[in-house]
Amino acid sequence: xxxxxxxxxxxxxxxxxxxxxxxxxxxxxxxxxxxxxxxxxxxxxxxxxxxxxxxxxxxxxxxxxxxxxxxxxxxxxxxxxxxxxxxxxxxxxxxxxxxxxxxxxxxxxxxxxxxxxxxxxxxxxxxxxxxxxxxxxxxxxxxxxxxxxxxxxxxxxxxxxxxxxxxxxxxxxxxxxxxxxxxxxxxxxxxxxxxxxxxxxxxxxxxxxxxxxxxxxxxxxxxxxxxxxxxxxxxxxxxxxxxxxxxxxxxxxxxxxxxxxxxxxxxxxxxxxxxxxxxxxxxxxxxxxxxxxxxxxxxxxx
Length: 302
Fold this sequence. Notes:
By secondary structure, the protein is of the alpha/beta class. It contains ten helices and 13 strands. The strands form two sheets. It has a seven-stranded parallel beta sheet with strand order 3-2-1-4-5-6-7, with helices on both faces. A six-stranded parallel beta sheet has the order 10-9-8-11-12-13. Helix 2 (57-70) packs parallel to helix 3. The longest helix is centred in the first third of the chain and has 14 residues, at 13-26.
């Protein structure tokens, strides 16, 4: 039986992971930009395309004409933002003039991305994770995630530091030294995801440094069993912490497009420190709140 749904994605893990989930949900095809295949989790069947830069006109033209000849067989076309979706937006809209199609675009973040604004302009319906103000063609859909896995029994307590799928120089220079300083004080081990593990050879033995690609296939297990988490504020990360009911401190990427990570964190309900306010005092006050809770109750029976 031929597939009638296709999910098209590229960019970072934030765009790729929701596409993988919806591909399985709709039993559809997955088309992914070549450089983003490193974010694939598990054994997925997918096809690839090449669109190396928004300024690469040749790649744009190839994707556009490929779409005209290949997307016609699908009843539902789902895009996930990022500039790589632009040629598919235009081609899908043209095809929908002649054949009835369901055109959908998923927005992971609290702020509507620019490519998704283009998609909505061309008649796509928005599937939103956060409610997007002043967007009439919107289905408050939620963030696609796989169901929670069962927790495993670990012999040691640990917390996790996630610096985003591409790593973070800010975390390397500011967060890691403070975590190293206080790991013994809290009698806690830390699993710390960094960009380059070779830079962290002289730190406390309680700190285990890993690269994102080394842990991506068991990241749910790591998250599910963590005492608490310190992280960037990507939508997938927030969704995972919500799914596993984790305590988390979010430090949004200050130069994320349209400051979307700040708004993700703000609307998520988790603890938040902006980079401009980050210092040792604020950081460990937030950690104390994660460990002992924000409020203690003294309950008297009525």
